[in-house]
Amino acid sequence: MRTRFRPDRQLTARMVLTAFLLGLLYVAFVAVLVVLIRSVVVIVLIAGGLLVAQFFFSDRIALLAMRAQVVTPEQEPRLHGILDRLCANADMAKPRLAVADTDLPNAFATGRNTRHAVVCVTTGLTRRLDTTELEGVLSHELSHIAHRDVVVMTVASFLGVLAGLVTRFAFYSELFGGRRRTDQNTALVLALVMLVSAVVYAVSFLLIRALSRYRELAADRAGVMLTGQPSALASALTKISGDMSRIPKDDLRTAQAFNAFFFTPAVRSGSGLAAILSTHPTLERRLDQLAQLSQQLGTAGR
User: Fold this and answer.
1) Nearest Cα to Cα of residue 118 among 153, 83, 90, 77
2) Residue 13: strand, helix, or coil
3) Catalytic residues per the record (predicted)?
4) Of 33, 173, 184, 222, which sits most exposed with the smallest number of CB within 10 A?
């Protein structure tokens, strides 16, 4: 379904490349497991079942984990009004709107397609931002739905889940046929599987993180092109990042599982190695891009 969100060819290319590389990694991983483990089918079936469940029920799982509730226009007229205007401008179907009762200021979008999409905001976000700032955040989240990068992120996480499951099976199952082998052979197979799993997890982790950082910049750009107000999004980013340090550590730890999908991470993005491992670009990088967009829009309007 086409919308007025501009297609982002670089984002699409990166999603395709990431999916292709993860696919190759997955094939190689399964090939190694077939050599080392006779009952590899059990692992693949379990991991595949988790992927299917995550794909079809990602919206419900996310709302349940965040203790969020879908709200009606009567319950949240302000948010629904903003979402109605943005969806009309973007010429896209309106997703469901949910609210999570937490002081953590954030938002995220999830769902396998536009018909099953949901945008969730927290009460901490609505208390801190004005209407124009909320428009910037919600347009950012709508662009994730329009570009379908939420689905790609969900599927891309499959390989990491599979690698993690293999590691657990190595410790807690009898898939290696230990009773039919010597202890030395069993230990060797265990070590090899652990090594392969660790390498696969590390590579998939880095690929997904790189895609995640780029998609956040792409969503910032697309959201601003829809609203025409880069300063509003920059203000929202600054407010949220500044207030994140005031959130209780327990709440931040609970929310960190959603970092890849949040508007801003529950922890501040660092530099160097921390930046490579982060799900989001640094605040400075996002603000610099918004400043450039502000100049471009100003020049185009003259």
Assistant:
1) 83
2) helix
3) 141
4) 184
For residues 270 and 23, give the distance between their C-alpha atoms in angstroms, rounded to a whole number: 30
Residues forming a β-bridge with 262? 108
280 is in an annotated binding site: no
Please write the tens of the pLDDT for every residue from 180-230: 545 566 667 667 766 776 777 777 778 888 888 999 999 999 999 999 999
Which residue segment(s) compose the domain that 176 sits in?
9-300
Closest listed residue to residue 281, CA positions, set 210, 230, 203:
210
User: Annotated catalytic residue: which of 74, 76, 133, 141?
Assistant: 141
Between CA 258 and CA 264 the distance in angstroms is 10
116 is in an annotated binding site: no
Residue 4, in any domain of the structure: no
Q: Are 99 and 66 in contact (CB under 8 A)?
A: no
140 is in an annotated binding site: yes
Distance CA 253, CA 266 (A): 8
The yes-or-no answer on residue 141 being catalytic is yes
**Coil, strand or helix: which one is 250?**
helix
Beta strands 68-70 and 118-122 are unpaired
The answer, as to whether pTM is greater than 0.85, is no
* Beta strands per DSSP E along the chain: 68-70, 96-100, 107-110, 118-122
Count of domains in the chain?
A: 1
